[in-house]
Amino acid sequence: MPLISRRTLTAAAAATGLAAGSAALWLSGGAAAQAAALPSPDHVVVVVMENHAYSQVIGSSSAPYINSLKAGGGNLTNSFGVTHPSEPNYYALFSGSTQGRTDDSCITVQSLSAANLGSELLAAGKTWASYNESLPSQGSTTCSSGKYAQKHNPWFGFSNVPLNSAYTFAQFPTDYTTLPKVSFVTPNLCSDMHDCSVSTGDTWIKTNLSAYATWAQTHNSLLVVTFDEDNGSNGNHIATVVYGQHVAAGSSATATYNHYGVLRTLEDLAGLTSHAGNAATASDITGIWN
Known about the structure:
globular, 7 helices, Alkaline Phosphatase, subunit A, about 290 residues, nine-stranded mixed sheet, 11 strands, alpha/beta
């Protein structure tokens, strides 16, 4: 189907669903939820980095690869975490709610039943997986192991997400056509910039995901690089960059977004008709699609 037809269908479907929720206000920005004319990518890979402000990454000589993705893709200039510390932000990004989390402690595995990105994809007959660096084994529910931290993997908290959908990063496909519709990549505590430098994290993304990013440009796919929260002193202003086919090079989304808007966009990119938690009243990312 030609691209313009897919966009037209996506916009029409979004407009149909908009009427029921048009009175709802986006909690963080006060704007009524809207569905943008989005592409329909075959694959979206989201990598979440840690604890650095927008100004520490965008324009920084310590992050040349992320800035190359910005130059060749779309940059969210006003992207924000929703709270501190890390863990509730991961839950917000995955399920549209912090799920009452206020710290970084491990939770009882599969103790939650709320809707989330993984459960929505599976219920719609689409595919979902996470790829977690230093996870001891596929589906392991351990709280920590070396540089691995469960607090960055919210999917383990939900009974409606199969444990075996959490893979080790060593299982990340080399044949990118076999990737799920949507997947999250969680680097370990050094690679995600939590314990190590911006340069270390930037190099990790380049080493491990640049081949996918290049492939995505010509294979109807996207790479999203975002952060859980800032360093605690910049109003929770974080970097979020989108790269791949159908993203205009050097473009910017200048409206204000947070994790709920990113989740809403991931849901709509996947063609989902359901929206988890606060994503239901958030707005799609606009201004970067070509």
